[in-house]
Write a structure and sequence with these properties.
Length: about 350
């Protein structure tokens, strides 16, 4: 082939290549515009708040996108095409939840081996991870002390990981060496912020261990059994405003009320799926009116009791729609009365508020 023929051939290739590239770009642009247009005409999700009877549904947290402004259809399309989606930062199996004084929502993701931090007011998101040399295995519960330090129980590592308010790792508590711990399987965690005393549920040991923020053991109470202040695989715990403790006694299918020293005060609950009964009780919280909120994993609901153990109301059922659950886990409340429930197998935290009709209890 002569030089002239070669140049003619190159010219033809360029002539056909350019229109092909332009056509491909046009297709991408057209698809993006179509996606953008369709997104504007697609029916929006239910508008929050959504009344569910006793409570209003306010929304859910799954990933950083839930606290950021929604991108345009074009941006979402390009992110998907370029592989820039944030699936790696979605919740996998949320469990323990805490809300700090600034309104940040912290979620221990047991299967994701991370703690998600959602700052809705600042539209910021971050993750807390343990050091690579001493990583999370199964983070379960998260709580904060009066200084805003963050404590995370890891049931698999049998340790408590401690982070500063800025998320910087500080230390671990409970370890007696690389492979030994004062815990057999630490799960539930509550902190009395008036004294910064930690109450740690050691599920396999059937007891509660009381620690200082430096890790010094201050007390231990509980043993296996069905009697007062005895446990059968306890899991979750919370501290009421008066300093007393409410503890989920999981396989005794009840909630026990103890004083700060571990002395028995009262109990309520029994096995069953009827109202006022429990099957796989998990997270527990006490609101500003002294009502006790108990998550039921098996029955996919939250039951709300007065301090005497009388059922006031319940919310939730099985499913993945707003206000429904699939094996819910932890629960927490913020200073504004919002209720955060870990919806385990749906990979989200749902947000509720008791409606005006229930605000005074019954």
């Amino acid at each position: 082939m002569g030089k002239g023929q070669a140049e003619t051939s190159m010219s033809r290739k360029t002539k056909f290549a350019l229109p092909a590239a332009v056509a491909a770009a046009a297709v991408v642009l057209a698809l993006a515009l179509a996606l953008s247009a369709s997104s504007s005409t697609t029916a929006p999700p239910p508008t929050a708040p959504l009344s569910l009877g006793a409570v209003d549904y306010l929304g859910a947290l799954r990933s950083p996108a839930d606290i950021r402004s929604r991108p345009s259809g074009l941006k979402r399309f390009l992110k998907k095409v370029l592989g820039l989606e944030e699936d790696h930062r979605r919740m996998v199996l949320p469990h323990g939840i805490a809300v700090d004084s600034g309104g940040r929502v912290l979620v221990a993701d047991t299967k994701g081996q991370v703690v998600h931090v959602f700052d809705g007011a600042g539209h910021r998101y971050k993750q807390l991870r343990a050091p690579a040399a001493d990583p999370f295995l199964s983070p379960i519960a998260v709580a904060l002390d009066s200084q805003g330090r963050i404590y995370v129980t890891d049931s698999g590592r049998a340790r408590i990981f401690v982070f500063g308010p800025d998320g910087r790792f500080l230390k671990t508590l409970g370890g007696l060496g690389k492979y030994e711990s004062i815990f057999k399987r630490c799960t539930g965690l509550a902190i009395d912020r008036r004294s910064d005393v930690l109450y740690v549920v050691d599920t396999v040991s059937m007891r509660v261990v009381v620690l200082s923020t430096e890790g010094k053991v201050l007390n231990r109470f509980g043993k296996r059994g069905k009697g007062p202040a005895e446990f059968n695989y306890p899991t979750h715990i919370t501290v009421a405003a008066d300093g007393t403790l409410w503890i989920v006694d999981s396989l005794n299918f009840r909630v026990q009320h103890l004083d700060a020293s571990g002395a028995f005060l009262s109990a309520f609950g029994q096995l069953g799926d009827a109202s006022g009964a429990f099957d796989k009780p998990k997270g527990i919280a006490v609101d500003s009116q002294g009502r006790i909120l108990v998550v039921e994993g098996r029955n996919d609901r939250v039951q709300v009791y007065d301090s005497g153990g009388q059922l006031l109301f319940a919310f939730g059922d099985s499913g993945s729609a707003p206000g429904q659950f699939f094996l819910p886990t932890g629960i927490a409340l913020d200073n504004e009365g919002r209720i955060y429930v870990g919806d385990g197998q749906n990979g989200r935290v749902e947000i509720f508020r008791v409606n005006a009709g229930e605000s005074g209890g019954r």
